[in-house]
Amino acid sequence: MTSTGAPTAGATLRLLDKADKEIVKLDRTIVGAVYKFQHEFRKNPGAPGFDLKQLKGHERLWSARVNREYRALLVNLGGNDWLLVSVKHRGHVHRNLDRLAYGINQVTGAIEYVDLQVVEDDVLGGDSPAARADAATAPASDRALEAPLFAGYTAEQLADLGVAEPLIPIALKLTTDDELLGLAEYAPRHTGEVLLRLRDGVPYQQVMDEVTAPVADVAGGPSAGAGGEDWRAAADRSQAVVITDDESLRSIIEEGDFGRWKVFLHPTQERLVRKRYSGPARVGGGPGTGKTIVALHRVKHLVDQLPPGHNKPVLFTTFNKNLAADLRSRLLSLGGPETLDRVDIVHVDQLATRVVSEADPGNAKRRIDDAQALREWRQLLVEAGGSRWDAEFLCDEWNQVILGQAVASRADYFKVRRAGRGRSVTRPDRAEIWQLAERFTQRLDVKGLETHRQVAERAAQLELIRQERIEARRRQEEERGGPGNIHAESGTGAWLRYRYRHIVVDEAQDLSAAHWKMLRAMVPREPDDIFLVGDTHQRIYDNQVTLGSLGINIRGRSARLTLSYRTTREILGTAIGILEGTDFDDLDGGTDDLAGYRSVLHGGRPSLRSANTWDNELDLVLDQVRAWHDVPRESVAVCVPTNEKADEVVARLSRHGIMATKITGDVARRAEGVHVGTMYRFKGLEYRCMIIAGVSEGLVPRAAVDVWERTDKLRHRRELQRARSLLFVAATRARDALTITWNGRPSRFLRPLAGTTFDR
Ligand SMILES: Nc1ncnc2c1ncn2[C@@H]1O[C@H](COP(=O)(O)OP(=O)(O)OP(=O)(O)O)[C@@H](O)[C@H]1O
To answer: Which N-terminal stretch is annotated as signal sequence (predicted)?
Structure first.
């Protein structure tokens, strides 16, 4: 090893993705020494205590002393710019100098580091077939024992896909899935993704298109970085984070997996976050692919581009109050108060309420949701002595047709198109329905009630009027050669302007047409105006829209994330099984699917368990929760189809000394004990261990749904789809373990999982 005239000024220190995972496994005292090390190293890497040395035979790899026993391994990016790739015992470093491999990936252009000794010893197990086969001394007969998993590919083909070069010989010798999963856990992330996709049987070209091409693009094409000279630029393309203060490393290490999203964006996520879009953009993708993470980073990115000020030109909105509260705390953790100060975070119905209250400050009506509105319809029909129409149909007609298309009069209702409504109605039918709708609105008025949908429609209209006024003024001023979109409102002297400069929407699949109309009118049609993330496979409210027809044109600005960070491959397989045989839309009149959806995480198979009665099923739930005794209670959830069942689960767990809390609209993430709730409540949340109970025929889907089969086939299909998506959402909340239980007949949605082990 050559000693150097190491620099004396302060240094930039970055941390490579996965080095954190290695550090976290070290003894606590060593982790403490690493914190101290990074603090001192950033001040002066040349300080004698570090004994900074270039490793023998390595052009860019250096070692620095963390304590007596441990060494930090650092890649020098040029000058005083360093990348921390590993912390290892000094004995290991000395013994394995020729086994430490690093370089710039020829395809992704990112820096990768691999300790081949660790791969063989820890990942493959020193005596695994692959490790044995890798050793030059291994007898040929051993190597022939099992067929290698990637026998059908050449080293060159794997290299073209971007598999880390030093790992290719090992990859080609892997013979079991356990070895492959071990390698994927350790290897640079892209390598793991490629190999797992190939192993899943995905054709070579498809892996190239779906996994490699999106990342190769980031590097500016497959050969970017091939010269390998510009290591700083390569570091920018790598999954690495600059350690700016003492807290940054500590927060990654101590928050474990929960803190990684803040720093290690996948290149595909990063690109979506930073891109300039010429108009509205949409990011789709299956559960747990980081859509919310992308939305959070996007908001921060937009704020970072703003000129200084004290206003809030960025709106960050989502479907409900709990989710909005969650976005607020995560944005605070990501960007600090400076970011939060420039962002209006509010859920979409609250936003609509704000608009309506501003226009009509005296309005003291109480807002009710769809379920309460349906109850009002039922009562109205009882009081009216019945009708040919049932409450569900009328409620839907009122929401989708009368409110949805802003039908203001009887005459308009006679003319309105009812596209997408399964049951056709004649002119006399329309007269009858209109009369009932009028009675319904009067009833709400008298009771001082207003549905969220009514508020959203009214807000949309108010915002459209406001937008027309702004645009009219803008045109006038342009004619006069005046300024942009700030205008004195006639008569009042007040300034009238667009409410926001950028809007970012999470859970976009559940917003209604009225919500979109309102949002569209709140931002000028300029680049980066609307950025929405969502997954139509997770739509659990009946709000199918075509964004293009609502003035939100996402054509050509639509992307999809496919790598799940939450769910294991095993859970994902079960969840996808639930959706079998159904089609989904893309929010814009086309179709969407989960092609390429995958995970590199690995865990136990979901357990499917049946009981004779609900009471016995409650015992199964209790046993399962007890079996997860080593998991913090707050990371365990039980999800059931009805409120009553949620109460019963809470009661059963509590009776046996297990703290449990029912999650409601007001209580979610921070509730103490095991979280219990109906499926709707779990939207957007995640847990380490999850039980979905009560998945019996008659409950999932509700028995009432099949009534539509005879009278309204379209509606029947929609209701089934919604129930299926609800179960899908629930199943994909689980990070590590999933148990599904039922009593009596299992739900028809579990049928595609028949191949899975059903435990009795
Ligand atoms: N780049 C990343 N690095 C580490 N963790 C990540 C990354 N991206 C996402 N995650 C983690 O993956 C999990 C899922 O992310 P997120 O909630 O954003 O997914 P989503 O697509 O919005 O999911 P859903 O549609 O199910 O609500 C979270 O725990 C998040 O912290």
So the answer is: none
